[in-house]
Amino acid sequence: MQKELVLTIARALVDYPEEINVTEEEVDGVTVITLSAHKDDVGKVIGKNGKIASAIRAVLTAASKDRGKIRLNIAD
């Protein structure tokens, strides 16, 4: 569910939605979601001063309250 949520949000923000890639894995009991985008879109996903990335993380945290810890990485 979290993977699809990040994918939907990221695709709405970028110019190259077909190049959004999201992976999900478990590492030491923490769900790690990694988001990669076209090089021209990385800044749009991060946002000014990281505000968009923080907002995505907040939504993920709210959506996964009963599922344990979750972490979002944005690949360069």
TrEMBL record:
Keywords: Cell shape, Cell wall biogenesis/degradation, Chaperone, Cytoplasm, RNA-binding. GO terms for biological process: cell wall organization; peptidoglycan biosynthetic process; regulation of cell shape. Its main location: cytoplasm. One of its GO terms (molecular function) is RNA binding. It comes from the Bacteria. Belongs to the KhpA RNA-binding protein family. This is RNA-binding protein KhpA.
